[in-house]
Fold this protein.
Amino acid sequence: MATETSHHVAMTLHDHLPMLQVLIPFIASPLIVLMGARGGLSWLIAFVASLASFIVSIVLLMEVIDGGFISYAIGGWAPPLGIEYRVDAANAFMLFLISGISTIVLPFAYESVKAEISAKHHTLFYSCYLLCFTGLLGVVITGDAFNVFVFLEISSLSTYALIATGAERDKRALTAAYDYLVMGTIGATFFVIGIGFLYMATGTLNMADLAERIADQENNRTIKAAFAFILVGMGLKVAIYPLHLWLPNSYTYAPSAITAFLAATATKAAIYVILRFTFSVFQPSFQFEVYALEFIILPLAVLAMFAASFIAVFQSDLKRMLAYSSIAQIGYMLLGIALLNSTGLTGSIVHLFNHGITKAVLFMGVGALVLRSGSSFYSRIRGMGRVMPITGAAMVVGGLSLIGVPGTAGFISKWELVQATLERGWWPLAFLIAASSLLAVIYVWRFVEVLYLHEPAYGADHREAPLTMLVPIWIMALACIYFGFATEITLGAARTAADGLLAGTTGMLESVTSTEAGH
Amino acid sequence: MDVNTAIIVSMVIPSIATVTNLIFKNNPNLRDMLTLYAAGATFLTVLTILWEVGNSTTEVFALFEIIPGIDIAFNVEPLGLLFAIVASGLWIVTHIYGMGYMRGNNEKHHARFFSSFSFAIASVMGLAFSANMFTLFGFYELLTLSTYPLVAHKGTKEAIAGARTYLAILLGTSIALQLVAVIWTFTIAGTLNFELGGILEGKIAGPMVAVLLALYAFGIGKAALMPFHRWLPAAMVAPTPVSALLHAVAVVKAGVFTMLKVGIYIFGIDFLAETGASEWLMWLAAFSIICASVIAMTKDNLKARLAYSTISQLSYITLGMALATSMGVLGGGLHIAMHALGKITLFMCAGSIYVATHKTNISQMTGLGRVMPITFGAFLIGALSIIGLPPLGGSWSKWLLIMGSADTGQWIMILVLMASSLLNVAYLLPIVGKGFFVSDPENVGPVKEAPALCWAPPALTALGCVIIFFFAGDIVVFLTPLVTP
Amino acid sequence: MTFEFIVGHINYWLFIVLMMTGLYIVVSKGNLVKKIVGLNIFQTSVFMFYISVGKITGGTAPIFPLDMNVDPDVVYSNPLPHVLILTAIVVGVATTALGLALIVRIREEYGTIEEDDILDIERKVASDENRLHGEAMGGRA
């Protein structure tokens, strides 16, 4: 078999980083249960694992930000036969986002989980959390199409369980988790059917290898069917507009910390998979894909931007409002993908990141409000901005970023998206993006008014949130502002990633030839 | 002090005042004194810049890059400097007045009020010294957000509704139209820097020029061009110092200032004149002038009437830009200063009347002039300046605008300006007339002149209206670099 | 489309029939357990599909002789899809287990596992909330 090529033989710890990225939380998860750790200790293990994973992701990002990639063969089995982990700018950026959000949400979760979930479940809760985290990292890092499915299910199954833990506060968390389970399983199964078709047509599962073999047979109907199944399957996970039905209830009834984590990462990982498949595995030169994106995804994205925003305006529960707003924001990301140009793709990737941190602020803020006022209904959190000024201010920052006010992260991504539509010459779309931002103004301002322009409700706990919550919230809020000015990291990485994706398989093909040379 | 440092300092000082107001919220005297010092220091800083730079344009200095090709950058040029001088100078006066008003009226939340107020000034300074459209847009939005708490200040249902309209229109137009226009400009021109003569020539042609101009003209909601003028009357629920400084000077002038900047530095006056793209804007401005004046006549609430008068006067400046001649631009630029002095006087007088009598409607003001002679005297001078009678400042800018219209052969515009002056007479002078010439002891009752902190500032600005008449020539000379490429 | 084509792809037709049956059960049945059964059938159809993919006409079981002397004329079936589907089966079992566990909890909280009854209960909860906190739009949608 394979002799010596640099990427199979990993000698130092540094060479194993791609594996460690996933392995650390994966091992820590059963460790929590095996040690029978109580609340505090299980939290600590989860946090340390997440932090270690975050550090790994930073190192990986630094290595590939200039456009290179790292290929890691699991167990030394060379790709394309063995499972390959492949880190390039696009997924290093996603790993950075996911592990970063997790590391910041966990300190917040400590108090929030204590308040929302009974102590006997904490051990399993944190164990599940780490599994979910592992799954999301795995989905992003792997270069093997079937492996995506496996990690996807690891994260999904643990997500269903985590959402169901919200049942202690509201029993509807159970039905929400059940609905999500049914729809999520259908989505994942569709995805796996698509992979099956791809395997039928090409005889390989390695993404780079797939890309090369698909390029030769554009009119193969099996390939087209595969693309359709994969797009719909992942579309369910992403919550593309008519496939979003599971999302509002799941986000509303899940524990606050879980909502903050999922909203910032889970749908983003799924969008990454769509990106990876539409641009790396399939090519933008694949006409069927272009039609699918322009005539199906693009209208649906615009529909999401308006319909979901419109529904969000009329909510009376802040958490549910933010859930609908997430659906609308997903519309922006899909729009950027459907534009099929470099700026649009950059906008889409950078919006993944910026919207992730924005929603993290807002959902953590909601968690803090729930801790003090007992519920996230507008009538219950009325005037809480006055008694919790620090939390309130962070939520305003998050809200402004959601609208896309200059000086916040949300503005940068919106700028890129509008510019991309104008570059394509589709100026009506530019106005639609701007007009849907106006709906965001309305729903954001509704909660700002509720927080500040009313007398605090009777019966709420009139204290500021605890420090363990305020610090994570403000780290994220400051990140919203910081990434509104310092864009080298976000825009730079996104642009490298977008160019890498659009350049198609050039990077991937090289590696395939090199591994074949090794055979 | 180096000019670039001075620009930063002029933004930092009001920002510090924002913080000190919150820190010393329980020590009103210290807090207000510090803010007053800050106002004075800001004004001095701006004067230093004037001293150093005169009416030349300085090199752009960039703080940092946001998106490749777009910086947060500042420089000094005559129009911005004029705007900065007007805003920071009037801040001192308004702050003194504001202390009197807020205390005399027992308003609540002083710290929050003055804090937001200072922050709004900081945004105005940033806006005035912006070296590109991106920076300007950022500060434009910041100004909207920082003034929102001021409009909603009273917290009543009415105030919340007013603030909602305010935010919806200003944020709405800027995001939906102006932002698209800015990105469009960047996409075709590849830059957003302000350059004399414009950056668009040769990049865009035909009817699209007019479309882009329309996006800017309507997107700059702060210029209150009809039909996006509703926010201005809605903002009148705010305490009077806010109406005086922000909604007669800083915010609305930020709007027309942006409009002039876009006309001069993005499109270029010659480019506009060549393509004729701004002709429709001229007609719309004319319509706004007449229409708003007519509406003003129907308003009995004094502040509402002044608000509509402001809408009409702002369109003078838009008109000046849309004429696309050097006289028009100079007239528009000059009107920024002239109208600011006149209108702030009127608003502060309206506030004084409210403090002294708690009356807001014009029909209730009969006979008040006799017991409040200083307030009503100042109001008269302010009104005459707005009407444009010599020897008051407003006459010069109107004169230049008429000259500009004559230059381009737009005779109808001359008629519009004349008619508007007559309408100004019709809606402003009866207020003074009622105050002085109708005796109504029953209505007046035990009313006395408002506290000195309330009447002195308008008296001062009224005096300013007279003095500036004699220096108008200097201001025009100061602004000429704008029209001499 | 010849008769031969139809018969020759019988396993794929069955895959589609099973898949549609499963999906139909998930959509149409109100009983939560039956929905899970439907989901199982749906997933099973995919297992069938993968197994079909691996089969090669005339191919034998992919077991190499002990001495590793592979006869080049012998056709082997492709083992990879079978291995893959083992993973998918495990996932399917886990999903079923979790779904059933959720149903048990739902039964404890709601006292029923009929979707219509659950929806009624939730609608009532939501309308109580609306009375308390103001109307909302969207509901379960």
About this structure: The two ends of chain C are 42 Å apart (CA to CA).
